[in-house]
């Protein structure tokens, strides 16, 4: 059965291509150097021409940008620097007119410290109802001068901050992002209201930030984690599944079952996808169950090296996990939090990416031409897989990581919060180039909030549009073909493939072959539908993907 992406299809998301927009870096309509909603609306025709099915907006809410917009002062409004609710409605309306779905980022683990509730909590007494919406606790030590636990912030340092009356509040991220207490019914009710607020405005779905962290074991006495008190991706090491004090606890699933009743009250039901950093496909599948969010990001795929055996294993495991959950698989190569894959895929296995960024991208040097070749091959491979593909803005242009941003322009709080040890995520957030010239290469009438390198001129939309073989035209061709070819959600691996080659069929003879080896291999028989690079003398060269019929 052909997959229907019409507005009436409740399962439109199962094999959709979803384009992530980081609003401050997409397009700037008013020339102040910061991207905005009107800028996005003016450029939606680019997404329609590209052939994606939906756009996902990273946070556009009121924020002081302590964490790039993920410190939200009001979950039901627009940052005045980015526009108004009327501008959002105009954006959603134009997207729907062009046949594009709209997904918004939901940030339920924490608010900004400027949120009205947190300001009320600071003014209230210890033990008050206002403080009960957040996680306030007395400190340890003779005078409460020590944090309540050894819990660490994901961005470095203690996860507790003391307030003037002596109590401490929990912030798993920056101190400007106090964590909500999801045991509090008022918090739960408020987010039901938020889900309805955006759904009523025509939003088609939600991406749920830090979905694994809402439920916490806050029973007294709070538990220390012991040394080292990890809070990043390794935090779950040594804990039985579902038992860590604040990550991936079993109780979190009650929250999402409750949300599903809200999302299913709309026609069509609103979709959701979890950002859940969890240790296994089995744990990830819990968030993706139909009675919960329905889909979860597959970061294992993003983190897999450019190796045929490793990729085949993660693809097989991911499809099995999605099937077990009743969900479709998700695939992503880049996003607003990671080094762009055009650069990342060229780093030798085991490279310390932070050290590479601190070296301004020189240790080791990256072959940008080969990086782009590999990124194009990775894209065609991803787009051939069953499930949803999430594409980060600028991927369609082949943008590399801007690794040489000078430290004086860095905006990511990671830089300061780690004592200037971790460079942070600014290099993948540099505003997009639309034209070959201009103060910000067409991003806006003025400059850009992060400086763009001169090399961006060659990657601009204007420089690639209509140019045969350009990365932009490769994406357009592949997405047009994908829409016609999609049937079912299964693949069949070829019985025999040369070492270093991935070879699978989807259906009706549609076949994807990727050569990840260092040598050319014989091109299988069939009509070439699209290739990520030149095919010469009947051979599929290294770092090249082809679709065959």
From TrEMBL:
Q: Which Pfam families match?
A: Alpha-amylase (PF00128)
Protein name according to UniProt: Alpha-amylase family glycosyl hydrolase
Which family, according to the similarity comment? Answer: Belongs to the glycosyl hydrolase 13 family.
Keywords (alphabetical) are: Hydrolase
> Under the GO molecular function aspect, what terms does this record hold?
hydrolase activity
Q: Which residues form the Glycosyl hydrolase family 13 catalytic domain?
A: 20-429
Q: Would I find Hydrolase among this entry's keywords?
A: yes
């Amino acid at each position: 059965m052909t997959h229907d992406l019409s507005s009436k299809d409740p399962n439109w998301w199962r094999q959709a291509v979803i384009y992530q927009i980081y609003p401050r870096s997409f397009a700037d309509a008013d020339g102040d150097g910061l991207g905005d909603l009107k800028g996005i609306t003016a450029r939606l025709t680019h997404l329609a021409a590209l052939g994606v099915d939906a756009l996902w907006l990273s946070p556009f809410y009121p924020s002081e940008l302590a964490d790039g917009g993920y410190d939200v002062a009001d979950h039901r409004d627009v940052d005045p620097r980015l526009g108004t609710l009327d501008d959002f409605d105009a954006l959603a309306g134009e997207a729907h007119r062009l046949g594009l779905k709209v997904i918004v980022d939901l940030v339920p683990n924490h608010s900004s410290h400027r949120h009205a509730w947190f300001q009320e909590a600071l003014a209230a007494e210890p033990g008050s109802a206002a403080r009960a919406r957040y996680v306030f606790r007395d400190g340890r030590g003779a005078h409460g001068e020590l944090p309540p636990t050894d819990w660490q912030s994901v961005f470095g340092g203690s996860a507790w901050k003391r307030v003037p009356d002596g109590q401490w509040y929990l912030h798993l991220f920056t101190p400007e992002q106090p964590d909500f207490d999801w045991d509090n019914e008022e918090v739960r009710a408020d987010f039901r209201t938020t889900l309805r607020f955006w759904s009523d405005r025509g939003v088609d779905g939600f991406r749920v930030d830090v979905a694994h962290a809402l439920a916490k074991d806050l029973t007294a006495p709070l538990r220390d984690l012991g040394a080292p008190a990890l809070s990043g991706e390794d935090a779950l090491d040594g804990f039985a599944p579902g038992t860590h004090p604040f990550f991936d606890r079993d109780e979190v699933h009650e929250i999402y079952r409750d949300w599903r009743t809200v999302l299913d009250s709309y026609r069509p039901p609103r979709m959701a996808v979890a950002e859940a950093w969890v240790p296994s496909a089995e744990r990830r599948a819990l968030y993706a169950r139909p009675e919960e969010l329905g889909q979860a990001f597959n970061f294992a795929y993003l983190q897999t090296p450019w190796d045929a055996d490793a990729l085949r294993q993660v693809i097989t495991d991911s499809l099995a996990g999605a099937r077990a959950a009743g969900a479709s698989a998700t695939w992503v190569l880049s996003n607003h939090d990671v080094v762009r894959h055009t650069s990342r895929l060229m780093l030798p296995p085991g490279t310390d990416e932070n050290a590479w960024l601190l070296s301004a991208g020189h240790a080791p040097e990256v072959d940008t031409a080969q990086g782009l070749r590999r990124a194009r091959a990775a894209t065609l491979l991803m787009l051939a897989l069953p499930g949803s593909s999430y594409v980060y803005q600028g991927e369609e242009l082949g943008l590399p990581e801007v690794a040489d941003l000078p430290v004086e322009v860095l905006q990511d709080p990671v830089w300061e919060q780690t004592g200037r040890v971790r460079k942070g995520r600014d290099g993948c957030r540099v505003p997009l180039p639309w034209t070959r010239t201009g103060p910000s290469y067409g991003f806006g009438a003025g400059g850009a909030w992060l400086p763009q390198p001169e090399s961006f001129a060659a990657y601009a939309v204007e420089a690639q549009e209509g140019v045969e073989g350009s990365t932009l035209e490769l994406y357009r061709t592949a997405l047009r073909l994908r829409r016609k070819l999609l049937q079912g959600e299964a693949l069949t691996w070829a019985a025999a493939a040369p070492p270093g080659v991935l070879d699978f069929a989807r259906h009706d003879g549609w076949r994807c072959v990727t050569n990840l080896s260092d040598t050319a291999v014989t091109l299988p028989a069939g009509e070439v539908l699209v290739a990520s690079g030149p095919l010469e003398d009947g051979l599929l060269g290294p770092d090249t993907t082809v679709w065959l019929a």
